[in-house]
Amino acid sequence: MSLKLEQLTAGYRRRPVFSDLTLPVIKPGSLVAVVGPNAVGKSTLLKSLAGLLPVQGRIELNGQELTALAPAMRVHRLGYLPQPLPQAIPLVAYETVLSAFRSARGGWRREQTEQAIERVFDTLGIRSLALRRLSEMSGGQRQMVGLAQVLVRQPQLMLLDEPTSALDLHWQLNVLNAVKAATCSNGAIAMVASHDLNLALRYCDQVLVLAPGGRAVMGEPEEVLTPELLARTYHIDARIERCSRGHPIVLADRPVMPVTTQEIT
User: Which of 88, 112, 220, 238 could serve as a FRET partner for 149 with CA atoms 20 to 30 Å apart?
Assistant: First the structure.
């Protein structure tokens, strides 16, 4: 299974956020961080791949053109977690995850279904939430339930828009471990929009950096996230160093003023 994006143009109404975006082929089992400053198109890219925004270009998943699929067929292959938190509805978590599972795996036997749901709750460490109503949960707890709805379906492509935004450090690590395990065990591909460069460096196989003006760079995290790229993209003076356990980390020292055309003489 692989993902190929060629000459994608997407955006809102008459304002494209990016144009003619072409990326290297993403291999199965890959966890890809989608990073960049605000308003460069991270969410737009994920929504476009999920079929929620009109898009021009070619999107191939395992050799099949996704834009040609009917929505009912797409739901079997894709799992999308939007940035807004799941609504605080009176349904219990187990019911919402069961509903998500049936939308993609409706032909499974009851025993298989129950085992799949319990496995996801255990993997995410949220078994205690199974019979809690979403209306009684915190934002972070609802975010974990939303992720469970994606993981339980075992999609070929997971599109996760800031899945750790409402979580503390413990649960951030738990989420990335669970998503990483799902990509490895199922040969799936996960694209995770995030502002946390250090989590991207530690967990992700590839990093896609989106920059203003529709520019994009993709590659292995330590090759892509250089001080030069951080200065050019985020306008910060930063270093990449290693912690005592050998993990690379980004240390931002100070903001720098972007150079404008008016300042060039």
Answer: 220
Return d(Cα 265, Cα 257) in angstroms, integer. 17
d(CA 58, CA 170): 38
Only one residue has tokens 């199922």, namely 186
Looking at residue 103, its pLDDT comes to 84
Same domain, 175 and 242: no
d(Cα 88, Cα 41) in Å, to the nearest integer?
27
What mean pLDDT is predicted for residues 235-251?
95
Which residue is associated with the tokens 């990073």? 35
By three-state DSSP, how is residue 250 classified?
strand
Eight-state DSSP code of residue 214: G
pLDDT tens-place string over residues 123-137: 999 999 999 999 999
In this predicted model, which residue has the larger pLDDT, 106 or 170? 170
- Report in angstroms the alpha-carbon separations of 256 from 18, 189, 210, 238, 264: 25, 35, 19, 10, 16
Same domain, 163 and 231: no
**DSSP state, 196?**
-
d(CA 90, CA 246): 45
**What's the pLDDT band for 264 if we cut at 50, 70, 90?**
very low
Domain that holds residue 253: 226-265
User: What pLDDT, on the 0 to 100 scale, is given for residue 259?
Assistant: 61
Residue 265: the pLDDT is 34
DSSP string, 75-133: HHHEEEE-SSPPP--SSBHHHHHHHHHHHHHTTS-HHHHHHHHHHHHHHHT-GGGTTSB
Give the number of domains in the chain: 2
Which tokens is 167 given?
Answer: 């979580």
